[in-house]
Specification:
Elements: H1 9-19, H2 22-29, H3 36-47, E1 49-50, E2 65-67, E3 70-72, E4 76-78, H4 90-100, E5 105-108, H5 115-121, E6 125-130, H6 135-148, E7 152-156, H7 178-189, H8 192-199, H9 222-230, H10 237-247, E8 251-256, H11 259-267, E9 272-275, H12 289-300, E10 305-309, H13 315-323, E11 328-331, H14 333-365, E12 378-379
Parallel strand pairs: 4-11, 5-6, 6-7, 7-8, 8-9, 9-10, 10-11
Antiparallel strand pairs: 1-12, 2-3
Helix pairs in contact: 1-14, 4-5, 4-14, 5-6, 11-12, 13-14
Bound molecules: flavin mononucleotide.
Flavin mononucleotide is lined by residues 27-28, 30, 41, 79-82, 108, 110, 128, 156, 254, 276, 278-279, 281, 309-312, 331-334.
């Protein structure tokens, strides 16, 4: 094992902070306004206690699961993120690592690598899109993803274009011209490891959005793609049903926070939902996703697969989410930290840390399979979840 190995996501985060230029680390950390939701996503898992056994645990544990038709070696999937500039190998390194660990991956339509390269590296790739542009362009992006081998579609809906952060947002350049290089030179020069990783590739971050391009058109810059998205009318549930049908395969609605909307996603034809706060990057002061998971899981039962993302930093978090009704979780920042510090090996390291943590927690709880987990394995403080929604919208 090399010295680059880390034993926890917290250690990876600390190293990522030291390795990345401040603006790139700031873009990963994100969080809107005061960052209350971002922090609560993590803190809420700490509020949940665990009730362990002392003897008589089963000797073996099976943590495999199938989500959106894809078998996964553990209930952890890669959540789609736009990872421009974190590492030269970007999502291709993430795809190789997740494939090596038998884990499906979501690729963002704002990611830095084309779907063709990513799906070739991990055949279990789901393509993620936002409701952006007209229907024809969305269908064209979906068709391209399907032709590249994407095995599912993730439609992410929880984004409200909040652009304020109390600590100030890092400047995101649109392209890597001379002016940008001069502006960012001081902070990059202070990060020699990061600089070398790019110099070795003889390239600079392109900052283009390759999966936004349609019909062999040019690759748009970040702000062009973002502008298209901002200018698109938000979808209705009928629009969601239309896209699910147009895709015609496993379909996840990511960003569900209310039980009534979970049912609407189901009725629109979704295979799965992800209960999420977008990692605290959407509206601030929204309580952690894990707090509303039990209500949502109860509302949809087995009709639809329930996934949770936001705040997962260790294997015990995964077990807690499964105990409260999730079939699996998706991780975001955790693997970005690993990618930043050690590329593909760093993402593999993150997945190994998750697997060991899940295994230890299942052992301690005396579980041989995920199906045996339930809320009775946890100590849930009073007031952990917000009052349930009494007046559903549909
Ligand atoms: C830097 C960054 C970029 C992201 N980009 C996307 C994206 O392009 N599409 C998407 O559906 N979610 C995106 N997300 C949200 C993640 O998929 C996921 O919901 C979130 O990171 C989960 O929270 P966690 O980081 O605490 O694990 C992004 C998150 C981060 C941190």
């Amino acid at each position: 094992m090399s010295n680059d190995w880390f034993e926890s996501i917290a250690v990876a985060q600390e190293r990522a902070k030291k390795r990345l230029p401040a603006s790139v680390y700031g873009a990963i950390m994100g969080g809107t306004d005061a960052g209350i939701s971002r922090a609560d996503n993590v803190d809420a898992f700490g509020e949940l206690g665990i009730r362990p056994l002392t003897a008589g645990q089963p000797p073996e544990r099976d943590m495999s699961v199938t989500v959106m038709g894809q078998p996964s070696s553990m209930p952890v999937l890669i959540s789609p993120t736009g990872v421009q500039a974190v590492h030269p190998d970007g999502e291709v390194a993430v795809a190789r690592a997740s494939a090596a660990r038998g884990v499906p991956m979501g690729l963002s339509s704002f990611g830095s690598k084309p779907i063709e390269e990513v799906a070739a590296a991990n055949p279990q790739t789901f393509f993620q899109i936002y409701w952006a542009g007209d229907r024809d362009s969305m269908v064209a992006r979906c068709e391209r993803a399907k032709a590249a081998g994407a095995v599912g579609l993730i439609l992410t809906l929880d984004w409200s274009f909040v652009h304020s952060r109390d600590w100030g947002s890092p400047a995101i350049p649109d392209s890597m011209g001379l002016k940008t290089m001069i502006t960012h030179a001081p902070e990059v020069l202070r990060r020699p490891g990061y600089l070398m990783s790019w110099l070795r590739t003889f390239q600079l971050p392109t900052l283009g959005v390759p999966n936004f391009a349609v019909d062999d058109g040019p690759v748009p810059g970040f702000f062009e793609a973002y502008g298209t998205w901002m200018g698109t009318r938000p979808p209705t549930w009928e629009d969601v049903a239309w896209l699910a049908e147009a895709w015609g395969g496993p379909f996840m609605v990511k960003g569900i926070y209310r039980a009534d909307e979970a049912r609407r996603a189901r009725d629109a034809g979704a295979t799965a939902i992800s209960v999420s706060t977008h990692g605290g990057n959407n509206l601030d002061t929204v309580p952690a996703a894990i707090r509303v998971l039990p209500e949502i899981a109860e509302a949809v039962g087995d009709d639809i697969e329930v996934v949770l993302d936001s705040g997962i930093r260790r294997g015990s978090d995964v077990v807690k989410a499964v105990a409260l009704g999730a079939k699996a979780v998706m991780i975001g920042r955790a693997y970005l930290f690993g990618l930043a510090v050690n590329g593909q090996a760093g993402v593999e390291n993150v997945l190994d840390v998750m697997r060991m943590g899940i295994d230890s927690t299942m052992l301690g709880l005396g579980k041989s399979s995920l199906a045996e987990l339930g809320p009775e394995d946890l100590i849930i403080p009073d007031g952990f979840s917000p009052p349930r929604l009494d007046s559903p919208i549909g």
